[in-house]
Amino acid sequence: MKLVAKNERVVKGGQLQKKFDNEAPRRHAELRSVLQRLARNNAVVVMVTNWGQSPLLWNFGCRADFRGIPWKNFTFVYALDADIQDVLQERGVASWRPNKVNIRNVSKKFGDSQYAKTVFWQIAMVHDILSMGYDVLAQDVDLVWRKDPLKFFAEADPDTDMFWMNDPASLQQPLYINGGFVYVRNNARTRAFWTEAYNHGHSHNSQQSILRPLFVHHYFNNGLRLHVLDNRFANGPLLGIKKHEVPSDWIVAHASWTHNMTDKVAKFRTLGEWDEHCDHGIGKEAWW
């Protein structure tokens, strides 16, 4: 069913969307069997990364491995450069690289020009997986899990369309969500939301700048049902560089609200979640 609101806006994408859409038949033919294998209760964990960000992905994986969470069994990664795609394949992580895309370096700070290059892909991956019929747990790579969150969402309120991390930035109130961790149930309302977000995906240097205005429109016009997660899904303000306020029963911790990779590592170390024995796949001197 295609959801059409009374005053639905016609939003056209740019060249990135055109190219991505043109690749869709080949991409979906290639990924269909992969996603069928990965889907758990029709849900897939999806991330996007490049070589520069990959130490955070491997830290996520090492902490999940330490806790016996078989993350590779249900995780799919959109790779933004050839080097990280090679490593993902070597390490047995299901992945796909957009044709001729080569966004290799880590951003120096949130929202800079290098970060802006990844924003489209953060949104496109959700739109893409939804279009293939799956629920999506979309997350940044700067997270760790204490428990498997897919189990939480399998039992969560069935009437909720999307679950978001809390982000108490005063600028965003009352739209206090963080785009770094979201569980999306696949239905007409969420597909309409993410299709519009996708068509705006080239227009801003942060994901949240695109998403915030759409929440109000889709809430009032399409009946989109949202839920903001409690502090067991701990976002950046709870993870300090020198101390933390993460509750003892936390499920997910997100090292957001930082200037750069150095601060993210410091936050994880404070929480005891930077795995010093992990093969992070890149020399320390290259990034912190």
What does this structure look like?
It contains eight helices and ten strands. The protein is α/β, with parallel strands linked by helices. It has a single domain (15-235), classed as Spore Coat Polysaccharide Biosynthesis Protein SpsA, Chain A, CATH 3.90.550. A seven-stranded mixed sheet has the order 3-2-1-4-7-6-8. A three-stranded mixed sheet has the order 5-10-9. Helix 2 (54-66) links the parallel strand 1 and strand 2. Helix 4 (113-131) packs antiparallel against helix 6 (188-199) and helix 6 packs antiparallel against helix 7. The protein is globular and about 45 Å long. 41% of the residues are buried.
In short:
The chain contains eight helices and ten strands. With 288 residues, the protein is an alpha/beta fold. The strands form two sheets. A seven-stranded mixed sheet has the order 3-2-1-4-7-6-8. The protein has a three-stranded mixed sheet with strand order 5-10-9.
CATH class: Alpha Beta
Q: What is the ordering of alpha helices and beta strands?
A: HEHEHEHEEHEEHHEEEH
Strand order across the largest sheet: 3-2-1-4-7-6-8
**Percent of residues in beta strands:** 15-25%
Quaternary structure state of the chains depicted: single chain
Determine the N-to-C terminus distance.
48 Å
The description of the largest β-sheet is: 7 strands, mixed
The level of helicity is 25-40%
Domain count, please report it.
1
CATH topology: Spore Coat Polysaccharide Biosynthesis Protein SpsA, Chain A
Structural class: alpha/beta
Shape: globular
Q: Runs with pLDDT <50, length 5+?
A: 283-288
> Count of helices?
8
- How confident overall, as mean pLDDT? 89
Number of strands: 10
